[in-house]
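Listing S7. Sequence submitted for prediction.
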Amino acid sequence: MTMRVILAGYNVDSEVIEDLKKSSLPREDVTPETLSASYARISRDPRPANELRAVAREEVEKARRSNRNIIFKMGHHSVAEHAVFNFDIIGVSRLAIEEIEKFRLCSYTEKSQRYITLGDDFVIPEEVKKAGKEELFTSTIRAQNRLYHMLYKKLKPHIFKKNKEIAEDPKKRSMLDGWAKEDARYVVSLATEGQLGMTVNGRNLELLIRRFASKRLAELKEFNHKIYALAKEVAPSIILFTEASDFNSKTYDELEERAGSFLKQPDESRKQARLVEFTPEADNKLAASLFHTVSSSSFEECIKKAKSLTAEEKKEFLKLAFKYMEFYDFPLREFEYVSLTFDLVISATCFAQLKRHRMATLTAQKYNPDLRVIVPPSIEEIGAKQEFMEMIDRTSDVYSDLKEILEHGAEYVLTNAHRRRALIKVNARELYHISRLREDATAQWDIRRMASEMSKLAREVMPLTCLLIGGKDAYPDVYECIFGKKPKFFPP
C-alpha cells in the first residue's frame, strides 16, 4: 500500500464550531468521541483508518457504545487519549491553579504575575465566608495588594537605574518592568485570581475529575463540577469513572495520622536545597547505558567495561554524547537512567515555576509559616524590608487565626513569599532541561538560585554526567571549555 498521511482532525475554537453548526443541517457527529471509537477499531478492523472514521461519524451512538465497552469492560483507557479538549479557566486562585497543574500530561499556559500588573482581584473562599472571617480575610488581602502596588512603584525606577545599560535598549525595557513586578508580587496572596488555558486529552480529563471529586476545598469542587458538565455534554462516552473514591479521599489523611505518631518534632532546617539521594557511580552507569545501546553486550558486561575504563577514557567516551549537542538539544535518553532526589525549602513563587517541569517527580508539604519567607534582594535595596516583613507578620497572624477554626482554606491568605518543603526527583536528562531554562540569565532570580544549587550538588556526585549542564546563556562558554571551540548555534 502506498503511504498516505491524512490530517484526521485538529482543535478548533468552540465558537467557530458553533457558528458552523448554525449554518448547517442538524448533526450529531460534532464530537471527539468518533475519533476515539474509530482509532480503537484499528487494532481489529483491516479497513483504512479514514474509512473507520467515516463509519464512526455516521453511527455516533454506536461509536459511543463502542467507547464505553472498550474503556469500561475491556479496560483500554488509551482510546480516550484521542479526544482532546481545550479549556479557558478564568477567575481561579493561585492556590487552585497549583492543584490543577499537578496533572503532568496536560498542557498549561498561565497568566504571569511577572509580565502583567496585578489589580485587586482575589478569590474569597467559601470556607472563610462560612466561618464569619470574610472581613478579616479581605482586609488582609487588600493590604497586601496595596503594598504590592507601592513596592512596584518604587522598584521600577530602582531597577531601571540599577540596569542603565539594559534600559537603553527600548526592546528590553519591558523585561526590566517585569523584574519590578516579579519582586513586588512576593507580597500578594495565594488567593490572587489567575487564569490559564489547559489542553487535556479525555483520559487525563477523567483522571482530573475523579481526583478532584475528593478534594475538600469548595473552589476545587466548584471547578470540578463545571469542567465535568462541559466535558460530559460533548463526550459522554469517554468520561466514565468520575466518582470520589476512598483511595483519593482517605489515603493521605490516614498516612498523615499515622506519620504523626512517628514524627513528633518538626524539622527546623531551612536549607534551600539538599541532595538526599542519587544514583551511585552515576558516571559509570551512564557510560554503561550508552555502551548497551550501541553494542550487543548485556548490561552486566557494559557495567564491567565502564568500571574498567580509566578516568580519561571514560571522559573522552562520554564527551561523544555531547559532541554535536546544541543549546536547544536534550541529552540522549540514556541520561534518564541516572537520577537525583533533592529536598527543597521553596517559596510559593519558586514552586509555581518548578511545578511546570512535569517529567520530574514532585511532591510537596503544605505551606508552613514556620519556614518563614523569601525576601527579594531588591526589596531590601529600596529600603522596604521592614514594611514587607510587617505585612508578612500580619499575614502569618491571620493565617494562625484562620487555621484555628478552618480545617481547610487558611492557606489562601499566605503570600508568594511563604515557603514549603518539596521533594523532587529528576533524571539527569530532566535536570539538564531545568538547568538550561532556569539557570539562564533571563530566568527569575529565585528559581535561578534554586536551579544553580541543584546543578552544583549534581556536579559534585556525577561530574561527567553534568559536563554541559548550565543555563542557556552560558552554553557556548561551557561547550568551549569542554571541546575547545564554540558550538555551531548560539542562543538567541
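Caption to Listing S7: primary sequence and predicted C-alpha cells for the chain studied. The beta strands are 84-93, 107-110, 193-201, 273-278, 339-347, 361-364, 419-427. The first strand starts at residue 84 and ends at 93.
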